[in-house]
Specification:
By secondary structure, this protein is α/β, with parallel strands linked by helices. It contains 27 helices and twelve strands. Among the domains are: about 140 residues, P-loop containing nucleotide triphosphate hydrolases (Rossmann fold, 3-Layer(aba) Sandwich), CATH 3.40.50; about 230 residues, Dynamin, middle domain (Four Helix Bundle (Hemerythrin (Met), subunit A), Up-down Bundle), CATH 1.20.120.1240. The radius of gyration is 50 Å and the shape is elongated. The structure holds guanosine-5'-triphosphate. InterPro entries: Dynamin, Dynamin_GTPase, Dynamin_GTPase_CS, Dynamin_N, Dynamin_stalk, G_DYNAMIN_dom, GED, GED_dom.
């Protein structure tokens, strides 16, 4: 097999490794070394088969030349790339040439060189390339024999070359000439070693036969990096210039210097041949004649010459490739398996599939989509996230955590000032003073409070709706990715279904609130009732009064200590003041009673039971004494009013003003109950218009407190009802409804023959991907055949 025979095999393998993204076939680097004028460039040129390297007497190669041969196919689009700069002289071009070039000409040569330092410029004429090498050498290394380690990179594109890299290096020399530095020998040696020490480098050590081999600098250096001679090929040049009567037979048969890859004798073109432009072809023929006709080499002529060198290189490259093959083969097998799997995920090509097959496919996809939707809600989907709550679990969370928490966060007495209560009581009694608990006022006041429950109930419906939407969007088998239009339509239909159900669910939840506002059932078994509430109010009042009396008594015993406390604890000034005042007027129960209640409210975040857990004591005597007893003194009234008019305890207000849902990522679930300052100011203004500053009577204070307790108790009952009923309503009207209806709705809307084409429109990128995948698989399979052939 000659180098030319190797080209197609290596090219196919190169294609394989490139396509399969395998590590490169990694063909060795051929590095030509030798003393000055040994014939390195000539050898290299013979291997490449192109006459393009500057040659001559004296030092010619003064910069490393990295020659990258790139194999291109005859029909490679690169060949006809329009608008490239060429080395052709425009003035010397004929009209025909111009036409040919402007049309991206069919006759452009398929071989050209391109320098790294002149990107985009093509050298179709290799004599021009030779001149450019000379110019570029002189530009960097000067004109006077100087050398430079900066390489010249030349790429040769041709259908007739192997993808190989060859390196031509400056000749080894001892004595500095021209601009060369005094340590030229060391510098060149280092430069050469840099290239040949790469294990991937095959060293072509050129030694001229007319110089004693013991003086071969090339062999000396090669031995340094390849002591066993495994990757060094000895080349004996200038065999034609040996003294008459002498020959290099001993060297060529390996008797003088041991090299595993052996020595090969060559006869390159002489300077005269170059001057007379002797063609490469003719010089190869002449070389052949030389060996056949030479008495010493005749017997081994088949193992001499450039052609044999090419064969040896070929064998070396093949061995190298064989070494790499098992690895490539294993990778290829894995890739074939993987690609087959990938191809299977794209599904069969539906082009030209029968109508019933399409119908069955659509039906199957609709069913799988609806099953996925249902199982996501029920929590038996196979694709359950472990990162966040989803589907049915998230709905449960909305009911229990989000709704429960937001309902609990509502203050039953929100927006309800003592003044509002007093005004309501007064309005409801009409012109007469009331005898008993003003029931109408309670009725009037509790209804707007019940309305407060509507916000969280609505939000709960919204959140469940949003979750169902999310489920709808994330649903469906993987195959749906292949049919983007079908997928979009499925989502659309489910979204429509959900949207249709949103209205009825909202309305039902609203009516739940309306129903609860329509009739205030004071007979509810859990309702605290007026008598019990009043009893608890009175009971607390009494207890408070007793406590205060006790404290007053103690203070009278130790007056100094009380004073000290007043000064020490700023925050408690008012309570201590109360005690002191109480001392002067012992019968002022109402104030401490109310403040106790405020403290109680403060402690109770949920606001729901403060009324209902009150004591059942019905101390009629005390109750009547209090309710129909003598009025409090004006001083007592003022004190009570101060406290009643005081705002809600700060912690309570903060708590109500912003309640966050536990799921911080769900910012939309944050329910805000902010009062705008403007609104508050307006309310205060209205208060001052509607309510006189007339202080509350003791009886009024008791009534207000009573109403407050009744509202808290009744509100708690309704809140519980709402917390119980809203999830049931949502399940019935939204979640279960959609679960039951999804499949039918999908089939009714989408299973229509007229829609099949549109719905089964395949994602273009996907069909391209499948095609690509199929081609890749083909190429892998072919590659596998190629590899088996090589072995
Ligand atoms: N007669 C004869 N001349 C040769 C042979 N090989 C090379 N030459 C001549 O030797 C001279 C140097 O050849 P090159 O190929 O330039 O040698 P080189 O080793 O590349 O030289 P530098 O790059 O300058 O180190 C040229 O004039 C060649 O024609 C050969 O086998 N026989």
């Amino acid at each position: 097999m000659s180098l030319n025979d190797l080209i197609p095999v290596v090219n196919r393998l190169q294609d394989i490794v490139a396509n399969a993204n395998l590590s490169d076939l990694d063909l060795p680097l051929l590095t030509v070394i030798g003393s000055q004028s040994a014939g390195k460039s000539s050898v290299l040129e013979n291997i490449v088969g192109k006459d393009f390297l500057p040659r001559g007497t004296g030092i010619v190669t003064r910069r490393p030349l990295i020659l990258q041969l790139i194999n291109i196919k005859q029909d490679d689009p690169l060949i006809r790339k329009p608008g490239v700069e060429t080395d052709e002289d425009p003035d010397a071009m004929t009209l025909e040439d111009h036409l040919r070039n402007s049309m991206g000409g069919p006759d452009l040569p398929a071989e050209w060189g391109e320098f790294l330092h002149l990107p985009g410029k093509r050298f179709y004429n290799f004599q021009n390339a030779k001149r450019e090498i000379e110019r570029e050498t002189a530009r960097v290394a000067g004109k006077n024999k100087g050398i430079s380690r900066i390489p010249i990179n030349l790429k040769v594109y041709s259908p007739n070359v192997l993808n190989l890299t060859l390196v031509d290096l400056p000749g080894l020399t001892k004595i500095p000439v021209g601009d060369q530095p005094t340590d030229i020998e060391r510098q060149i040696k280092n430069l050469v070693l840099e290239y040949i020490s790469k294990p991937n480098s095959i060293i072509l050590a050129v030694s001229p036969a007319n110089v004693d081999l013991v003086n071969s600098e090339a062999l000396k250096l090669a031995r340094q990096v390849d002591p066993q001679g495994k990757r060094t090929i000895g080349i004996l040049s200038k065999l034609d210039l040996m003294d008459h009567g002498t020959n290099a037979l001993d060297i060529l048969v390996g008797k003088v210097y041991p090299l595993k890859l052996g020595f090969i004798g060559v006869v390159n073109r002489s300077q005269q041949d170059i001057s007379t432009n002797k063609s490469l072809k003719d010089s190869l023929a002449a070389e052949q004649d030389f060996f056949i006709s030479h008495p010493a080499y005749r017997r081994m002529a088949s193992h001499c010459g450039t052609e044999y060198l090419a064969k040896t290189l070929n064998r070396t490259l093949m061995n190298h490739i064989r070494d790499r093959l098992p690895d490539i083969k294993a990778k290829l097998n894995t890739l074939i398996g993987q690609t087959e799997q990938e191809l299977a995920t794209y599904g069969d090509d539906l082009d030209g599939a029968a109508e019933e097959n399409r119908g069955a496919l659509i039906l199957q996809l609709l069913n799988r989509f609806s099953t996925c939707f249902i199982s996501s809600i029920e929590g038996n989907s196979s694709d359950i996230s472990t990162k966040e709550l989803c589907g049915g679990a998230r709905i449960y969370y909305v009911y229990n955590e989000v709704l429960g928490r937001s309902l609990r966060s509502i203050n039953p007495l929100q927006n309800l000032t003592i003044r509002d209560i007093r005004t309501a009581i007064r309005n409801s009694t009409g012109p007469r003073p009331s005898l008993f608990v003003p029931e109408l006022a309670f009725d009037l006041l509790v209804k707007p409070q019940i309305q407060l429950l509507e916000g969280p109930a609505h939000r709960c419906v919204e959140l469940v709706y949003e979750e169902l939407m999310k489920i709808g969007h994330g649903c469906g088998p993987k195959e749906l990715a292949r049919y983007p239009k079908l997928h979009a339509r499925l989502i659309e239909v489910v979204s429509d279904l959900l949207r249709d159900r949103l209205g009825p669910t909202f309305r039902y939840v609203e009516s739940l609130i309306d129903i609860n506002r329509a009739y205030i059932n004071t007979n509810h078994p859990d309702f605290v009732g007026a008598a019990a509430a009043m009893a608890s109010v009175v009971d607390e009042k009494q207890r408070q009064s007793q406590k205060q009396k006790l404290r007053s008594a103690r203070r009278i015993e130790k007056p100094g200590r009380t004073d000290g406390k007043v000064q020490e604890t700023n925050g408690k000034v008012s309570s201590v003041k109360t005690v002191l005042d109480d001392k002067a007027t012992p019968e002022k129960p109402q104030k401490s009673l109310v403040s106790e209640q405020a403290q109680k409210d403060e402690k109770d975040d949920s606001f729901d039971d403060s009324g209902s857990d009150s004591s059942e004591s019905t101390d009629k005597d005390t109750f009547l004494n209090f309710f129909f007893g003598k009025d409090a003194s004006p001083a007592q009234q003022k004190q009570a009013q101060d406290i009643l008019a005081s705002p809600q305890p700060p912690r309570l207000v903060n708590h109500i003003s912003s309640v966050e849902y536990p799921d911080s990522a769900e910012t939309s679930s944050v329910i805000q109950f902010h009062h705008s300052e403007a609104q508050q100011a307006l309310e205060e203004q209205m208060d001052s218009l509607s309510i006189s500053d007339e202080p509350l009577g003791e009886r009024e204070q008791m009534e207000c407190e009573l109403i407050r307790r009744l509202i808290v108790s009744y509100f708690g009952i309704v809140r519980q009802t709402i917390q119980d009923q809203v999830p049931k309503a949502i399940m019935c009207l939204l979640v279960n409804y959609c679960k039951d209806a999804v499949q039918n709705t999908l089939v009714q809307t989408l299973y229509r023959e007229s829609l099949f084409d549109e719905l089964l429109y395949e994602d273009e990128t996907l069909s391209q991907e499948r095609e690509k995948c199929r081609k890749l698989l083909d190429s892998y399979k072919k590659a596998s055949v190629v590899i088996n052939e090589v072995v």
